[in-house]
Design a protein that fits this description.
With 255 residues, the chain is an alpha/beta fold. The chain is 32% helix and 40% strand. Strands 1, 2, 3, 5, 6, 8, 9, 10, 11, 12 and 13 form an 11-stranded mixed beta sheet that branches. It folds into 2 domains: 2-104, no CATH class; 110-254, no CATH class. α1 runs antiparallel to α2 (31-49). It has helices at 2-21, 31-49, 55-75, 83-89, 91-104; strands spanning 110-111, 124-132, 135-137, 142-144, 147-154, 157-160, 164-166, 169-179, 182-187, 191-205, 208-223, 229-247, 253-254.
């Protein structure tokens, strides 16, 4: 629902801007400050959506939204400060946000937040969060014996389950990223149930792909005969490409 609301707002603004720049109708408004203001609000909203305080996104959202707000006030004659002034002098705020993100960005264990139903008890899950840079989880052998949540702001993400010792049972994986490419590697001896969505970009699940913008979604399920473990994956991307692949092969039925 949130994605559709912001998509509708940007669609309306885009139509209004197009009508004005093509001189079909002159609204007498400077739309770029308005767009920057809404973009800043959207980034701030996204920082809340990470489930914890995202200092990087908060700083970026305040900077971008502030440029738009000051631009609107400047055009209305309320202030002599312009959006360009804030763009030049406000970028240290983003540096401060990046510093805070690096220092205190990671968070500890949390209770199951995304997968608990009405009749399901809280389940312990491990959350890994990073705001900027590349994230590679599974470079070294590891054990998957609980649910995992991954949050990432800007950068590429690789989650490699082929290096994991996957315990029997169902393991629920939640992934949310802002901007960047995401690759998820699945061993060929587990069941997989993946649901993915992206605002702008491409989804590729086991060779079936979909690309575009304004919100795409794709889901796939693979059942492997005799498999003792199941991975249930929910992936939410803002801008970027997602690739989910079986290695080395897919011995089960895809539907």
């Amino acid at each position: 629902m949130k994605q559709r609301i912001w998509g509708f707002i940007m669609l309306v603004l885009g139509v209004l801007v197009f009508l004005q720049v093509t001189e079909v109708y002159n609204f007498g408004l400077a739309f770029w400050p308005v767009i920057l203001l809404f973009l800043g609000i959207a980034i701030l909203w996204e920082s809340i959506g990470f489930g914890v305080t995202s200092w990087f996104l908060i700083g970026l959202g305040l900077w971008v939204g502030g440029i738009g707000l000051i631009g609107i006030l400047s055009n209305a004659g309320v202030t002599e400060l312009t959006g360009g002034d804030l763009a030049r002098y406000g970028w240290p705020l983003v540096l401060v946000a990046i510093g805070l993100s690096i220092l205190i960005g990671d968070r500890p264990r949390i209770k199951g937040r995304f997968f608990c139903g009405k009749d399901e008890k809280d389940r312990a899950s491990y959350a890994k969060m990073r705001h900027i840079g590349d994230l590679y989880h599974g470079r070294a052998p590891w054990v998957l014996d609980q649910d995992y949540d991954f949050y990432h702001g800007i950068g590429d993400v690789v989650i490699d389950f082929t290096t994991a010792e996957i315990k029997p049972g169902t393991h629920k994986i939640f992934l949310k990223t802002g901007i960047g490419e995401v690759t998820i590697r699945i061993p060929d001896k587990v069941n997989i149930d993946v649901e993915a969505s992206v605002g702008i970009g491409e989804l590729d699940l086991f060779g079936e792909s979909r690309s575009g913008f304004t919100g795409l979604s794709l889901s796939r399920k693979v059942e492997v005969e005799g498999a003792e473990a199941t991975l249930q994956i929910q992936a939410r991307l803002g801008i970027g490409d997602l690739t989910v692949q079986y290695l080395p092969a897919i011995p089960g039925e895809i539907r």
